[in-house]
Structures are given as C-alpha cells and as structure tokens.
Design a protein that fits this description.
Elements lengths: L5 H10 L4 E5 L2 E4 H17 L7 E5 L4 H12 L3 E5 L5 H11 L3 E4 L24 E4 L15 E6 L9 E5 H15 L6 E4 L8 H10 L2 E4 L5 H11 L3 E4 L1 H8 L12 E4 L6 H11 L4 E6 L3 E5 L13 E2 L4 E5 L12 E6 L6 E2 L4 E2 H4 L5 E9 L5 E6 L4 E3 L2 E3 L1 H10 L3 E11 L3 E10 L6 H9 L10 E4 L15
Parallel strand pairs: 1-10, 3-4, 3-5, 9-10, 9-11, 11-12, 12-13, 25-26
Antiparallel strand pairs: 1-2, 5-6, 7-8, 8-18, 13-14, 14-15, 16-17, 17-20, 18-19, 20-21, 22-23, 24-25
C-alpha cells in the first residue's frame, strides 16, 4: 500500500499546528486540534471493526465533522463514499443495496439510516455527534476489490442516465490535488470561502486545502449576506462556488464586501456571460470558470481569457493534455467540434459496477468526457453541449445549454431547462421549462427576446412556466 490520503492531514498538523484549519459556526479550529480529534475518531472506528476493504458511507452536513469524518474513515483503510445528509431513507437504502456498503458513519444531521439488523452506536465525548451502523454486508466481500488501493467512491451526476460509481485511488488523489494547485497556487494561511455541498465536492477542494495548509471558512447557508459576512470576517482569498451562488451575490440589493478575494471560481455547471458581467459589476471581481470532472479532477480552468472569453471553460492545466477527437478517436484540427478528451495525472482507477478498470474505459489513452467542444489554435476550449442531450431539428443541431444561456440571461428568468419535443415533420423541436422571478411571466416577450439572439430553429416552440426544476444530487439539471 502506498501513500494514504490520511497522511495529508497528519502532515499539515505537523507543519502548521497552530494555523487555522476551519472557521465554522462553532468558531475556529487549528490543524493540531483537527488532527487530534480525527485521529481519535480513526482509532475508535478501527476498534469497532472498520478495516481495509470495508465500504464506509459518510453522511455529514457541511462542517468540521465532515472533514474529520472523511480523513478518519480513509485513514482506517476503508473505501469512503460521501453521501448527502439531505437524502431520504429510501435513497440511502438504494445506495447501500447498489454498492454493498458495509457501514455508515453519520453526524445525525439527517434521517437515521438504520441499515441492517446489526446496529452499533457509540458517542465519543468530544465528537458526540457521530454514529456508526453496520449494514450486515460480509467483510469478506471487499469494496472495489477489482481495483488497487481505492480511497473514495464518487457517483457521477447522472444528468442523462444512471450515475456511475467512480473509484479514485489514494495515489490518484495526491496526483490530482498537486496538479490543480500548480495553477491555483494556494498557500498556507489562505482562506477558502466554502458554500458548495462537501458530499459532492471534496477531492480537488477540501482535501487540497488540507494538503496545502489553507483554512476552510464554512458558511452556515448560501444567502448572499451570510456569504459576504463570512468573507469579511475571515478575509477569505478564494471563493469556489456554483453559478447559483454567484447569481445570488450579484443580485443582492445592498453592497457586499468581498474585497479580500483574489480569485472567484465558478464550477459544477456553465455560467452565462450575463451572470458573469453582473457579478463583476457588483463586486469588482472577474469570474473564472473551471471544468471539473469526477473521473479526472480539475483539468481545465479559464485563467487566461476569463474576461475576453467568459463562455469558454479555459485552457488545460500544465499537467494535462486536452484534445478534440472524432468518432475514431483521432485528434481533430483547431476550431472543429468533436468529443472532448482528456489525459493526465490523477485519473480514476475504474468504475464500481459493472466492475471495470480504467484501462478498459480509455480510448487510445484518452478519457472521453461525453461533452462536445471546440478548441482554438491557442488551446482555448469551449464546451458546446452534451452529446446525449443534443436536439435534432430537421438536421440542425441544437444544444440545450446554448438556448438556456439566452433564456437565463433574461431579467425575469431564474433558471431554465431546454429539451427536445417530438414533431411529425421536423423530427424534434426545441421546448423549454422556465422558473421566473415574476408571477406573470410574459411568454411572448421572452420568445421575442430569444428571436433577437438565436437562429430560428433554436427558438423554443413551447415554453412552460414551472415552480422548480428537477436537479441531480450534485445540483445539476436533470435532463429529460
């Protein structure tokens, strides 16, 4: 067994014991304090029977408990699957059945998982929120036994189908966090303002911040005033957020003090140029888009052309190769649309089910992301859309993301989802669901707005006003 991710925390506590590791609702915690509590939890888990090969689900809200639970669990040699604390019993039961998890460790912030017949519970005096339950799965059936040295399991977003269990090894975690920090350049003492769900964003984020000795400032909610207050109090230097969070900040009626930030990164889904412009006008900070993918990490960031080309996802980080391929997996010329393919360090080890290794999935050494994209001669990459969600209007290709960017830029629209509807003559036509700010959204005015900005075949033929759009567990639109 090589390096264990757990030693990142031990190393940070050794190098920067008095540095702040966490700012949260409970106050501040140093790296020495975080490691002491985490090590005690790790030892307790081992005493209860957690061992290498065990599949351990971690159910915690955003807090210091998630961080200590994550590192303690992986430090036992278990394979750790973070699970959202917002999931219901039926969803947790499905995950346990699908993966064969042996145990669940939770902070009691969500429902009681109460899995299996064998229930083990013990409250630690200093971490009295934790609860451990065993599912009854046989320990002899090791989690991800077909792969070497697995550390984490992450489920892909499942935007267009059933999500896949992506298995990431310890060495891959080291590789991808170090590759990402070549660009991010995070240093000890920096403060990252945290608003994303930790259960879905933890490798090239939470683990990276521990690796470099940065502090995580955890906002208790993502309301604009809460986020701005946390930024001001901690003098945060990096905001890593989704377009929704940035939109809330940009549309807040009062002035917000975000002056300490040196970098604002938008991730999880595409952000419209209009929202970027509003945020920059409001705060004075440009927005850098980042293209993250579970199987690889953070290989593309728009760090060179963010203001000139806000719609682009950016250039490949130094450690990665990114190309556009044709259907035969050959590299296409510049400015030609094709399959977005990536190669580099920190790649996933394989998929959980059906059991498969990375080498069986790559095409000529490339991982195909499922996105269609173009790349300029100087390497700037723009994602056009998902191949599976493309709409074919009488032979004309329409990508929902392009139409959604226009709809979402309208002042009365909060968010939208575009999809294809059947048509007897054209094959498909564009349809859209929109969540509006106003009770009486003027559909005709919205269509006029689209006609001024889109080709005729891209204009929605039907628009439905809805209260909410269904999302995946990671917060992405669930495609129809």
């Amino acid at each position: 067994m090589g390096r264990n991710v757990y030693y990142m925390l031990k190393d940070a506590a050794t190098r920067w014991p008095e540095a702040v590791a966490v700012y949260d609702e409970f106050g501040t915690m140093t790296y020495a304090g975080l490691w002491a509590e985490t090590e005690a939890l790790r030892k307790w888990l081992v005493e209860q029977g957690v061992q290498p090969g065990v599949g351990l689900g971690l159910i915690c809200r955003n807090s210091r408990y998630f961080i200590s639970g994550l590192f303690a669990a992986v430090g036992t040699g278990a394979v750790v699957l973070p699970v959202s604390h917002q999931m219901k019993r039926a969803e947790i039961d499905e995950i346990v059945a699908e993966t064969g998890l042996h145990a669940l460790l939770d902070d009691q912030s969500g429902v009681n998982p109460h899995v299996g017949d064998a229930l083990h519970y013990k409250a630690l005096p200093f971490l009295d929120s934790f609860r451990l339950q065993f599912t009854g799965a046989a320990f002899s059936a090791h989690m991800a036994a077909h792969l070497d040295d697995p550390a984490f399991i992450r489920f892909s977003s499942g935007t267009t189908g059933k999500s896949k269990g992506v298995v990431i090894g310890h060495e891959a975690v080291y590789e991808r966090v170090d590759a990402a920090n070549e660009l991010l350049a995070l240093k000890p003492g920096e403060v990252v303002l945290w608003v994303l769900p930790m259960a879905f964003h933890f490798v090239v984020s939470i683990v990276l911040y521990v690796r470099v000795g940065a502090a995580v400032a955890i906002a208790r909610d993502f309301l604009a005033e809460t986020v701005a207050d946390m930024c001001r109090q901690t003098r945060a230097t990096l905001l890593y957020a989704s377009p929704m969070h940035l939109k809330l900040l940009a549309n807040h009626p009062r002035e917000l003090d975000l002056s300490s930030l040196r970098l604002v990164i938008s991730t999880s889904t595409a952000i419209s140029p209009a929202d970027i412009e509003r945020f920059t006008t409001k705060t004075g900070h440009p927005v850098t888009q980042a293209y993250g993918i579970i199987e690889i990490g953070l290989p593309i960031v728009n760090h060179l052309n963010a203001e000139q080309n806000p719609e682009a996802v950016g250039h490949a980080l130094p450690a990665y190769r990114v190309e556009i391929l044709n259907d035969h997996f050959d590299v296409l010329p510049a400015d030609t649309m094709g399959h977005l393919a990536i190669a580099g360090p920190g790649m996933f080890n394989g998929y959980l089910k059906p059991p498969s290794r990375r080498e069986e999935i790559l095409q000529k050494g490339w991982f195909l992301t499922g996105d269609l994209a173009v790349k300029t001669p100087d390497g700037l990459i723009t994602v056009v859309g998902r191949k599976k969600s493309m709409i074919n209007v009488s032979g004309n290709k329409v990508f929902p993301e392009e139409v959604e960017r226009v709809l979402n830029s309208h002042s009365h629209v909060v968010e939208s989802r575009v999809f294809g509807g059947r048509h007897p003559l054209l094959g498909e036509v564009v349809e859209a669901e929109v969540v509006s700010r106003e009770p009486g959204l003027d559909i005709e005015a919205l269509l006029k707005y689209c006609r001024e900005r889109l080709s005729t075949y891209k204009i929605p033929q039907r628009v439905y006003r809805v209260e909410v759009l269904e999302k995946t567990a990671t917060g992405k639109l669930r495609r129809r």
